[in-house]
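2.7 Reproducibility. Because tokenized structures are sensitive to small changes in the input, we list the exact sequence used for DUF1993 domain-containing protein, including any N-terminal residues retained from the expression construct. No trimming or masking was applied before prediction.
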Amino acid sequence: MSASLYGSTAAQFVRGLKNLSALLEKGAAWAKENGKSEEEVLNTRLADDMYPLARQVQITSDMSKGAIARLSGVAAPAMEDNEVTFAQLQERIAKTLRFIESVDVAKLEGDESREIVVKGKNHELKFTAHSYVTTFAVPNFYFHVTTAYNILRHLGVNIGKFDFIGQV
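Resulting structure tokens (single pass, no recycling of outputs):
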């Protein structure tokens, strides 16, 4: 039995985005309690060649809304990637959640072998719907959620495994 495209994407993205929102709440509270500016926290990165926290959140949003849009044939909302505060990132997550939750579940189901094309600046990636979900969209989503978690944890925010996983 194969997993549904909805269960493999939208359901996981909603849960992951809600958990990311809760992580950011704890990060914002930690920053305030420790006299750190939002700018300092949101610009923290784990390594020089990695994106900072704010960009990790933006990419998490982009990966999830882009996947749902490609799989459902519904246009994703445009977002400018200009968030510089915790509140702005929370609004971006909320907007992403509203979009994902607005898409009819039936639009996400169907032919798992249909072609999905992801266009980059200088390249084009082609997948089946199934391989797009399992080898690109979901792994990228979790990579960026995990990296956001790790940045906060590295800073000293009191978060753990169950903050990442969420309510079980």
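The helical segments are 5-8, 10-33, 38-42, 53-72, 86-102, 105-108, 129-155, 161-165.
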